[in-house]
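Co-fold these.
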Amino acid sequence: MEFSLGQVAQLVGGDLQGPAERTVSGIQGIEQAGPSDLTFLANPKYAPALESCRAGVVLVGRAQKTPPELAVIRVDNPYLAYAKLLTAAFTPPYEPLGVDSRAVVHPSARIGPDCSVHPLAVVGAEAKLGSRVVIHSGAVLGRGVSVGDDTVIHPNVVIYDGCVIGSRCIIHGGSVIGADGYGFVFDGSGHYKIPQVGIVQIDDEVEIGAGNTIDRAANGRTWIQRGVKTDDQVHIAHGCTIGENSLLVAQVGISGSSKLGKGVVLGGKVGVAGHIEIGDGVQVGGGSGVAQSIEPGQIVSGYPVMPHRLWLRTRSLVKKLPELFKRVKQLEQRLGEDESKERSDG
Amino acid sequence: MEFSLGQVAQLVGGDLQGPAERTVSGIQGIEQAGPSDLTFLANPKYAPALESCRAGVVLVGRAQKTPPELAVIRVDNPYLAYAKLLTAAFTPPYEPLGVDSRAVVHPSARIGPDCSVHPLAVVGAEAKLGSRVVIHSGAVLGRGVSVGDDTVIHPNVVIYDGCVIGSRCIIHGGSVIGADGYGFVFDGSGHYKIPQVGIVQIDDEVEIGAGNTIDRAANGRTWIQRGVKTDDQVHIAHGCTIGENSLLVAQVGISGSSKLGKGVVLGGKVGVAGHIEIGDGVQVGGGSGVAQSIEPGQIVSGYPVMPHRLWLRTRSLVKKLPELFKRVKQLEQRLGEDESKERSDG
Amino acid sequence: MEFSLGQVAQLVGGDLQGPAERTVSGIQGIEQAGPSDLTFLANPKYAPALESCRAGVVLVGRAQKTPPELAVIRVDNPYLAYAKLLTAAFTPPYEPLGVDSRAVVHPSARIGPDCSVHPLAVVGAEAKLGSRVVIHSGAVLGRGVSVGDDTVIHPNVVIYDGCVIGSRCIIHGGSVIGADGYGFVFDGSGHYKIPQVGIVQIDDEVEIGAGNTIDRAANGRTWIQRGVKTDDQVHIAHGCTIGENSLLVAQVGISGSSKLGKGVVLGGKVGVAGHIEIGDGVQVGGGSGVAQSIEPGQIVSGYPVMPHRLWLRTRSLVKKLPELFKRVKQLEQRLGEDESKERSDG
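Predicted complex below.
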């Protein structure tokens, strides 16, 4: 990449204080950046580093105080501006490859304009791809799968029959969308399989990490709403709804028929029980277990979850249990509680 | 689907009270069902809904009281009858595709009658498929793999050399069967790999969810017995035995050489240590950690596990630890325990 | 396999006491082994079994007391000797297959001598394979991927553009190396994707289990150092460094930018927070949650972690909380603490 400061200011919608014709060709941290690098100040705690900053230009907040000699571009959100700049710098223009002759596309599938179907991808009967869809090698789309415009399906993804994927989505390698939900009924000698006749519906602007498993509904749909982003190895069981713009960090697991509101954040490895509701904006700390519904706006942690502040106090007390048992025993002895001898206090 | 009530009664082995020639074409919940729908009453708590039920017919238990004007079919297990009906309605007759010309089948592999080997599936040397086996696209079966009659291997499954899969099994997308178990011995400078020369053996009527990893034994076999059903992202290490009809919910992980009895149920995210035994019929609550062997028939939860009833009381007390520490401190102060000041009570 | 005792002694660098020409053809446990079997004594607690041992030969430590009539081979590390013997017995000589005509290898890729690129493997533009590299069916290597000598990539592995894999590595089925790290910035209406422009670098002698996800760095590299071994379903987020010879057991998850030292051992299901450091030689018990940095050499367990010995005492006390609350209440009552009535003690 090489951009003039004028170009950068235009790209990020910012106000430049400095020479418009100066160019930068790299991106570095605020302390490492040199005269040919761009850097940014998103976290106020690094503001003192501006004094000695040697960067060619710094993306800063609108009201940030900066040394007069330092070239800066003032924006509303420096981190967002940085991300947009990276996108401009590192996203080559899209060049459609068409359908590779070594891909397997069923004659009844409909492929929109300017798609790229890579070698050894499989597109099933009656599947339907929008415009500029990219299907990488080894991805397998079942019968009747529908994929919206500008969506990218990475290698070795599996999408079972009938599932619906929105526009501008990304699904990373090895994820499996629409496998049968886990449903059985005991028939006296074994577990009889309950047919899973629903689908998975993924709305627009969703990104699914690598190695996810999102199961089809028993009936109806498992629904991943607009703007949801999942990290790697996330599992979503049959019949769940994940509300708009929710974030599910790696190794989260959500049991059947649970509903997440909008903007929910589940930390890594969080487990969610079935048939519960998690309200809009709830945040759950990593490693926590959610066994019951949570009202909107709560911040919770622990196994099982409790208010996050309570958890911070509780988790340190668990380590002091041996001491507490000893103290209680001493109290009992002082009060002549001989019965305490019958107990084992560890 | 469209069935007459007479057909439905015959399919599920039930006694019809109502017009045999009436037809139903949909399946709905007991409150949503209309005159052209079938519904079922499996959970007694919904029985009052029968009074206002408008369904074309309801599957009910043999002894269920029902309004006289409501068409019902009496069966032993309404939920099972419902599942069987769904199966009849949604399972199209199997049509063998044969071996697609774009599949890669080694000349020494033996393919039974009426198999379907989809495009870009791989069947290795000396592999052996029974009758009506379905191998979906992208699945890779190693040398000498054996698959029983009527088994379905979904897209992008990997089965390593020499593993044995039973009849009437289903293995969902992306699962990896028979990768090397995790075995190393430190040689002073690094971890020397212990060859894993055993296999995975999966018996009949097993269903493996998406994204599972079931490792081959160091020697002998990792053994998944008849009727086991695993959910997605389950991990089973080398040398384990999973007893008949056990259920492993999503993200369960079982360490090496552990043995589960028959009919064990492990909730989501349960972790099981290595070299332990879990007795027949044990149930372990979601998110629990099992560090030691468990006698048959126990119901346990927690990290580490304890009797489930004890866990229900204990988990609510953890939240009250800050209060308890305060109370103990007050007791100590009342008894003049000055030494308590030296401690930090959080 | 069939080896003379002389051959075995030479293979493992041991001293034979017994007939060099005697042959063994099987490997069994110390109690099961018969005259045609080899066995080994690695754990001293089984030493008494030597008295009645009927094996053709036993691998034992240099100083082990053994019955005079028993053929033994004395070595420094019997378990390591056993592993080396297994390797010799079960590793057929490597026979290069070349590039199969049904593989898809970009014309600009460079393939070293004696490689095996199996049917339906994909090697992208400008990728570079060393000598004797094995790429199994269904594996997809992106643009510019580099793979060192003697490395084996198992079926359906995905390696994204630009990632670097060392020599003598093994990557098991279904693992995804180099998918985008999980990085977004909220733009007021949705989560804007931060381009992940780094790579994954895997050094020599690394083994990656099945179903792993190791994400590319936001910038720079996610770095798996020499000799690391991961079990199945391990997740490593963007920007992490995993130090030499560390062991990550199944279902471990490590959040972004964390650094593990050399020889770290993380038990199954361990979760590690982001931006922390775990020192050389740290061992973390299975199921634990690591929220803060850990000094070198510590052995810790629990959620959150504490010293392992403390954890062993603490975890048994959690079960006794109901009893403890009762005891404290009794103490309060004896002291006339009426206020305790206002509290609910579970």
